[in-house]
Amino acid sequence: MSKKNPMNLHEAALSLANSADTVHDIEVALAHAIEHGELHANVKRWATEQWEGRQLPGNINRLETFIEGGELDAWQKRRQAA
C-alpha cells in the first residue's frame, strides 16, 4: 500500500477486505474510526437527500472521503494490537 497517495474510503476498504461480502463491514469500521478520532481522513459528508448506497456512520461519503495510506496502516496496526 502506498504511504503517500490517498485512497477513498471505499478503496481503503477493498484493500483490507478478504471477500466482497466484507467490504461494507470494513467501510463501517473505517467510518466509525473516523467519527471517533481514531483514523484521520479528509471527510466529505452526504446531505440526507443525496445518499448513495448503504449508509455509513456520520453520513460519510465513501467515494469522496480520503485516507492516506500511512494513516490506514497505523490504524490497522493499532486495531490488530487491541
3D architecture notes:
It is built from three helices and two strands. It has a two-stranded antiparallel ribbon. The chain is mainly α. The protein has helices at residues 9-16, 23-35, 69-81; strands at 6-8, 66-68.
Topology:
Blueprint: E1 6-8, H1 9-16, H2 23-35, E2 66-68, H3 69-81
Antiparallel strand pairs: 1-2
Helix pairs in contact: 1-2
Alpha-carbon Rg, integer: 12 Å
Percentage of residues assigned to helices: 40-55%
List the helices and strands in order: EHHEH
- How many strand segments? 2
Relative strand content: 5-15%
- What general outline do the C-alpha atoms trace? globular
Strand order of the largest sheet: 1-2
Main pleated-sheet profile: 2 strands, antiparallel
Distance between the termini: 22 Å
Task: Report the mean per-residue pLDDT as an integer.
Answer: 89
Number of helices, where a helix is a run of at least 4 consecutive DSSP H or I residues: 3
Q: Helix- and strand-based class?
A: mainly alpha
Low-confidence segments, given as residue ranges, are: none
Task: Give a quick set of tags describing it.
82 residues; mainly alpha; two-stranded antiparallel ribbon; 2 strands; 41% helix
Quick recap:
41% of the residues lie in helices and 7% in strands. The protein is built from 3 helices and 2 strands, in the order E-H-H-E-H. A two-stranded antiparallel ribbon has the order 1-2.
